[in-house]
Amino acid sequence: MIAEETLVQELKSKETQSKAFEQLVANYKERLYWHIRRIVLNHDDADDVLQNTFIKVYRNIDSFKGESKLFSWMYRIATNESLSFLKQQRTKLGVTDDEYQDKMIKNLEADVYFEGDEIQLKLQKAIATLPEKQKLIFNMKYYEDLKYEEISEILDTTVGGLKASYHLAVKKIEGFIKGD
């Protein structure tokens, strides 16, 4: 894997952009897919959002200033694309956030790509009950094992606030699983 600074330079150069973009996709496609999938829950929707994310990255690479890691910048784009997608879906269906969450969980239960067992499904149901920001923080910390500093860059929030949100999310999930 080439150094991030080199990759960014190659992405910004017309001569090397195409090859560098292929490298970027190869390096980050799986991590971004699973990040998006944990937000939108559906495989096909995650594929669509991932494609939109890479299109945005490609079109906006010149505006990347290098103030954060490329990875953090792309995760922020993927997160925003995922949240925009969910908002569009809720609007299109004319449902509330809670109604849409219920629909997503029912779809997850029927999703042929979901390989989890009963416990994993219960965890997904518990995560679905969290407020959006807690859900994002929990997924990034629990599944992706990101450091609070990385999550702070992605979500543009303080480390202290993240720790508090993560702690609250864990307590809510524990309560849901125990049936409190």
Automatic annotation (TrEMBL):
It comes from the Bacteria. One of its GO terms (molecular function) is sigma factor activity. The keyword Transcription applies. Keywords: Sigma factor, Transcription, Transcription regulation. Residues 24-90 form the RNA polymerase sigma-70 region domain. InterPro entries: RNA_pol_sigma-70-like, RNA_pol_sigma-70_dom, RNA_pol_sigma70_r2, RNA_pol_sigma70_r4_t2, RNA_pol_sigma_r2, RNA_pol_sigma_r3/r4-like, WH-like_DNA-bd_sf. The keyword Signal does not apply. Pfam families: Sigma70_r2, Sigma70_r4_2. GO terms for biological process: DNA-templated transcription initiation. Residues 121-173 form the RNA polymerase sigma factor 70 region 4 type domain. PANTHER family: RNA POLYMERASE ECF-TYPE SIGMA FACTO, RNA POLYMERASE SIGMA FACTOR. NCBIfam families: sigma70-ECF (TIGR02937). Belongs to the sigma-70 factor family. ECF subfamily. This is RNA polymerase sigma factor.
